[in-house]
Amino acid sequence: MINLNIDEKIDEILEKMKDEVSFIEIKSGTKININKEDISLKEATSFPIFIDEVIDNIKKEEDFKGFKNKNIIQGMLFIIGVDPKFKYKDKYLNLLEKSGIKPEAYLIKLTNREDISIDKKIVFSNALMNIGEIDHKKYFIYGNVLEMKGTKLFENNEPHTAEAYMEKAVFYYNKALDKNPEFSLAYYKLGYYYRHINQYLNAKAYWDKFIEYDENDVRKQEIRDQLEELDYFLQFEEGYKLVLKGYVEKGLDKLLPLLDIFPKWWKLFFIIGVAFRQKQEYEIAKKYFKNVIELNSAQVEAVNELAVCEISTGNYQEAKKYLDEGIKTNPNSHELYTNRAASNVYLKDIKAAEIDVEKALSIEPENEVALTLKDQIKKLK
Q1: Can you tell me whether residue 33 is helix, strand or coil?
Q2: Are 341 and 373 in contact, with CB atoms under 8 Å apart?
């Protein structure tokens, strides 16, 4: 679970997006045309308009003829999204209804448009959530927009915030299922989410439900293909769970055959390495951890495991070499500093060991191994 308040992040977006619009006041008795319907205003009313679009329209027209129809329509819906309690909310909705526009349908169309930014889609989907009754489709649409935001953040290399948005999207997909347990698209999305975070049993459970309820043959075939591929990942999940529970041989029986299927999947090599390290077959384990580093040089856990194997086989200088490289990549890993301290103790470099222990404890004060090493270093001194 990501410890990040996405509701606050969304509120920040809504607050920032208020700057996208400005207001023009139209006096009472004026006829305005919305959706080709002439509507007479009974009282002076302020209307929100998108400034950038107005400026763009002025540049394109030698003779500026006024505000575009869609600018006013979208502006009214936009301001409801950034401020659901806006004083003219009911008036705007009445005007749209009189002009033959169904606000909820119009908002759904806006959230599906590719030329609208994701932050604007958050505003429009928030407006959708604050008009009329909330049903499963509204929850799904809102969740889908938050997923788009998460995907964009992943592309921008902001994984922590991206994952928090994804978790919030999952929350709304589940809300959609609370409203309608047979809503297939929510199962479709949830299956992909759990596939993404490597929870393959959950992914299968949701996709099985999708197949049960969906009526689109193309989508169903897509998920059948995914489920066929998922069988291997399910085998992997069963294998690593067995290893982590201590059933190493049973786990390896599941994992080793997958090397032919996934010859470049570092996670598979890593968990196999852990299994052989648990069996105290350190030389074999080292080979797998080295494969992990070749496939993913930033995988600090593999560096740490490799160092543990070297320490366990008395190769303290070799362990220190790996740990030096690992700390360059990840200078905030208390485990790397702790293991380097252990290596330095064996190498009789007590001063260096003491520095590493203090660094480890500054990062993780409750690190039991580092605390034990600290006591040992005191005795050695």
Answers
A1: strand
A2: yes
Q: Is the pLDDT of residue 355 over 80?
A: yes
Q: Residue 155: what residue type? A: E
Q: What angle separates helix 159-179 from helix 184-196, to the nearest 10 degrees?
A: 150
357 within 8 A of 337, measured Cβ to Cβ: yes
- Go through the chain and tell me how many residues it has: 381
Q: Cα(16)–Cα(88) distance, rounded to whole angstroms?
A: 20
Q: For the chain, give every domain's residue range.
A: 1-132
81-86: average pLDDT: 93
pLDDT at 67 over 80: no
What amino acid is encoded at 315 in this protein?
A: N
Region for 35 from its dihedrals, namely left if φ exceeds 0, alpha if ψ lies in -120 to 50, beta otherwise = left
Q: Average pLDDT, whole number, for the chain?
A: 90
Report the C-alpha gap between 371 and 360 in whole angstroms: 9
Query: How many Cβ atoms from other residues are within 10 Å of residue 113's Cβ?
Result: 10
